[in-house]
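Sample 1 of the test manifest.
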Amino acid sequence: MATTTRGVSAPGTSRGGGRWYTTRTTNLAARLALIAVLLGIWQLLVVGGALNKDAFPTMSSTLAALVDQIHTSACWTTVAQTLEGWGVGVALGCVAAIVLGSAIGLSRFAYRSTIPVIEFLKAVPVVAILPIAIVEFGTRLSMKMVLVAFGVFFPLVIQVIYGVRSVDPTVADTATSLQVRGARRFFVVVIPSAAPFIATGVRIAAATGLVIEIVAELIGGGAGLGQRILAAENAGPSSLPVMYAFILITGLIGVTLTGIFTVAERRTLRWHESQRNIVSRGAS
Amino acid sequence: MTAPVTPQVKVAPSEPATSSRGRRIGPRTTKALISLGSLWLFALLVALWWLGSNNSHSSFFPPLRLTLIRFRQLWLFADVRTDLAPSLFHLAIGYAIASVLGIAVGALMWALPLLRQASSPVVYFLYVLPAPILIPAVLVLFGIGASMSVAIISFACVWPILLNTLDGMRGTDQLKIDTARSLGLSYWRRLWSVVLPGASPQIVAGLRAGLQVGIILMVVSEEVGSTQGIGFFILQAQENFAGTDMWTGILVLGVVGTVLNVLFVAGERFALRWYYGSRAAARER
Amino acid sequence: MTAVGDGSAARTLVLEARGLHKSYTVDRSDHLAIADISLEVAKGEFVCIVGPSGAGKTTLLRCLSGLMAPSGGVVLLEGSPIVSVPPEVGIVFQDYGRSLFPWLSVARNVALPLKVRGIPKTERTRIVGEVLSSVGLGDVAARYPWQLSGGMQQRVAIARSLAYKPELLFMDEPFASVDAQTRFELEDLILRVRNEFEVTVVFVTHDVDEAVYLADRVVVLSRPPATVKMVVEIPLSRPRDQLVTRADVEFAALRGSLLSLVMGH
């Protein structure tokens, strides 16, 4: 008996169709309506004086600035600078985490030895080493890169280790009985089992990396969106619309990056889930 | 015919661990020895750091020896009140606000599907927006000081908590809801007694993620716009070329991060006893 | 088509279903699970519902118990149409592991429906103790469900459903997830508590042997879209016994005819 979860947790059940509008259009309409309402409230609050004009730009001026900026090449250069530090840092951190994590996960001795160190270092907020990076690397790309890589490495390596170590015992026994050993076992059994954990970890790493990149720019003075926004803040109230425009741009970058990695993660998870469901569905 | 006698099967107790000299050690001691043994790498790294920096004259990589001395001078416990306590206080308040709001609004979004559908793009956008980017804006709004820190900490922490609450509630086993209905629980009773407890492991995961974000924002908000706190201390030390001070600040952050993590995990283990117990039981089957 | 039984005693109907049908859309195509089902359950009866796999037994049970609203037809509980799950109804699910609440102890799980009905604490404790003893679990009140074996967990679930003395108990393949030996114990348990609590039972199962052993009447469903193929009276004597009843010649005959009905010969 498989109770197909119809996903309705509210009391009662949903009746079938028959309406001229679909749920999809209602949702889309509701979303657009809410966004419009929020933007309207924003405008009203500033124009009406509830929010101080010197501290808060109007919605209209912000959107105008946004449209303006998108058409300048300076804006995209700034974006590229941020993406540069983020991209290299995340890539470095991920490669290091996957390689080291696999090695550590496969060796019981290495695992026991390194786990206390890694757990401790992970608990240290990466912002703590920000000053050291500034001292060592100045405000160059390498400073941002190193910080991002560090920040990304520790949580991800733990994910990789966990993934490598949680191969289903039945799967492991099957592989042993089929004489699958060594490198082949690693690539054919271990990595696919660990893939969902790694995919989730990489997605989180991408998001964390962006936060650290921004921090590096804000405090370390590295080139990019963070620094640009700080410059706008220092330029006084007339630059407020530009500042908020860049905040929106940063948000959109975040949405795009996270979106790409989430799609990739779902692809990996889908494979894994469907594998697991096939095994467990036999009982019903 | 007499009933068959079932043979008694004796299971031999597992051999206790023996040391190299053949004496028997109890299981507790074995565990302690294993933990100690796995700290060798830790000890080795610290030793390397000590020896490697011992003869250093650089102002930014002082000998570990001097750093530790300075640490004791400053942080045990003189500067804690002036430099660390305010930061932790801001973190506590911001985190508390975010927790209450995050869980409440998350539950509300679960209960009102139209609200959830309508707001999900906005919520998602605010969730992936890197919170530090808002610090300059919040600075303009609130000025330098405590309210700025608390505001940005609250803002940053609320999203992971909210989304994990929502996700945890949405993932409620439909069978549990059917059972609750069969037992006569009303809608709100179901939400409170079944959906929320069932979601609590994931809510706790969200709380932990929120805490980590909060710590980052605590430090960064002070480094960008404050005249006190641990973040400010570290940055100022760096700008004033006070290397040992800077390193003591880093150590303090390390300790704070570790202690908060340990406290959180302990609290989690206690509150979610049932969850860990049931997972362990399921694994054994 | 019903095989008419005695019919002399005035039967109070606890449950009545008239013209039930249920269809739902899966991936944009309509699937008719239940075509036209009418049945009656008298007070105190033990009715089993059997049918081929995927016949819609569970769907039928969900409609009868109020968990699911049918697409058409009506379900009456003691004469009145039901709306959602009536408070006089108890339901025991197959997957006890997911039905019992792991964050509550056994005692708290069993006490929950009593709490909801406003019964004061001392009274609740007494009832919980009594009903746990009835199912043979007098000493595990403080434990957690996941600390118990499968059979014990299902007993807890049964106790929880009986604690508030329902009129009607629905059971959805409740013993399908336990081992054979435990299944026999639980079958006898449910017969015993049925007498002790004077509750009417509607029991869905895929196991024809089990149905014959337990039931007063067995409702056989057709392949989907499900209709009532036949209702068979089980005149075997009570109390039933695992060894004696199953060795009875009539048991084998009933079993054989039911099996051929289910398998569609």
